[in-house]
């Protein structure tokens, strides 16, 4: 799987702040769009605005980080679901993918679609879902001509 590592801080307290900012940004962007006040994101994360800017110097970096974090979560879900029967795993992953699509819809207009991160995200999603699709096809539960595209 291509690397989608975010630049998370190493110290535990700084990492908690970083993760809280991502979670708050995801919620605020979903509610108010990507033009939402950054102060609201910092407030919901329980940190000061300086902490937000220390982690995400620009709004664009914050938006991209939220997007990359969502893609990584979808990819992790595919790995975790691999233990289920093929059809159940594929259906559960597709449900998770639909949740991600809602986040993507809010963020996509604010992202550089040709950036390295975006191109990498497409590959990660394809690689995450492909084994689930192939397993369901091998079990005879999905048509052989079905393909995965993102």
Beta-strand percentage range: under 5%
Can you write the helix and strand succession as a string?
Answer: HHHHHH
- SSE-based structural type: mainly alpha
If helices are DSSP runs of H or I spanning 4 or more residues, what is the number of helices?
6
- The level-1 CATH class of the largest domain: Mainly Alpha
Overall 3D geometry? elongated
- CATH fold type of the largest domain: Tetracycline Repressor, domain 2
Instruction: Give the termini separation.
Output: 15 Å
Backbone CA Rg: 17 Å
The overall strand count is 0
Shape-level CATH architecture of the largest domain: Orthogonal Bundle
Largest sheet, strands/sense/barrel: none
- CATH homologous superfamily label of the largest domain: Tetracycline Repressor, domain 2
Instruction: Return residue spans where pLDDT drops below 50 for at least 5 consecutive residues.
Output: none
Number of domains: 2
Nearest-integer average pLDDT: 86
Helix-residue proportion: 55-70%
Question: What attributes characterize this protein structure?
Answer:
single chain, 150 residues, mainly alpha, Arc Repressor Mutant, subunit A, Tetracycline Repressor, domain 2, 69% helix
In words, what does this structure look like?
The protein is elongated, with a radius of gyration of 17 Å. It has 6 helices and no strands. Helix content is 69%, strand content 0%. It has helices at residues 12-32, 38-45, 49-55, 59-81, 86-107, 116-138.
Question: What's the short version?
Answer:
With 150 residues, the chain is mostly helical. It is 69% helix and 0% strand.
């Amino acid at each position: 799987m291509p690397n989608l590592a975010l630049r998370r801080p190493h110290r535990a307290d700084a990492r908690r702040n970083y993760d809280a900012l991502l979670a708050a940004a995801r919620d605020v962007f979903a509610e108010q769009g990507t033009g939402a006040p950054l102060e609201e994101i910092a407030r919901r994360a329980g940190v000061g605005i300086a902490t937000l800017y220390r982690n995400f110097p620009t709004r664009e970096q914050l938006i991209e980080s939220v997007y990359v974090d969502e893609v990584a979560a979808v990819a992790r879900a595919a790995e975790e679901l691999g233990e289920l029967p093929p059809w159940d795993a594929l259906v559960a992953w597709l449900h998770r993918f639909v949740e991600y699509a809602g986040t993507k819809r809010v963020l996509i207009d604010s992202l550089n679609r040709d950036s390295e991160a975006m191109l990498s995200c497409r590959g990660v999603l394809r690689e995450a879902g492909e084994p689930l699709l192939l397993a369901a096809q091998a079990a005879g539960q999905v048509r052989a001509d079905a393909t995965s595209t993102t």
